[in-house]
Write a structure and sequence with these properties.
The chain is mainly α. The chain is built from two helices and two strands, in the order H-H-E-E. It has a two-stranded antiparallel ribbon with strand order 1-2. 4% of the residues are buried.
Length: 133
């Protein structure tokens, strides 16, 4: 009976850890997804501004505003980089949450699987485990 209670406590502890890790993942992932959406909206607006500027230059037959267009294009490039950084951050949060609950994450496709696998069941990539002492 004592062994049963110890196993029950152990499994309960694992369940609590899973819930905690998943809750944190959901909160952090939602926050980052919202930031990504805001950056995408800003990028869309920047594209609109570029289009309006080009149209006005064409309509007025005044092409002196090319520096303005370059600046706006650079702003779009900066937004693209910020979006990419946030997507990497989101991937990292998901990976940390999976690792916290004892899952292995495929480096190639990001699929979660059991800790004892040698190959990814989604893409077939070899799973390399790194032991840190």
């Amino acid at each position: 009976m004592d062994k049963f209670i110890k196993n029950l406590k152990k499994e309960f502890g694992k369940g609590v850890a899973v819930v905690g890790a998943k809750s944190k993942e959901i909160i952090e992932a939602t926050k980052i997804k919202n930031q990504i959406e805001e950056l995408k909206k800003a990028k869309h607006l920047a594209f609109q501004e570029i289009g309006e500027t080009v149209y006005q230059m064409s309509r007025d037959e005044n092409y002196d505003g090319q520096e303005t267009i370059k600046e706006k294009c650079q702003a779009v490039t900066d937004l693209d980089q910020q979006i990419q950084d946030k997507e990497v951050e989101l991937k990292g949060i998901r990976q940390e949450a999976q690792e916290a609950v004892g899952k292995t994450i495929c480096e190639s496709c990001g699929a979660a699987m059991g800790d004892d696998v040698k190959f990814c069941s989604s893409c077939g990539a070899r799973i390399v485990k790194v032991e840190i002492d």
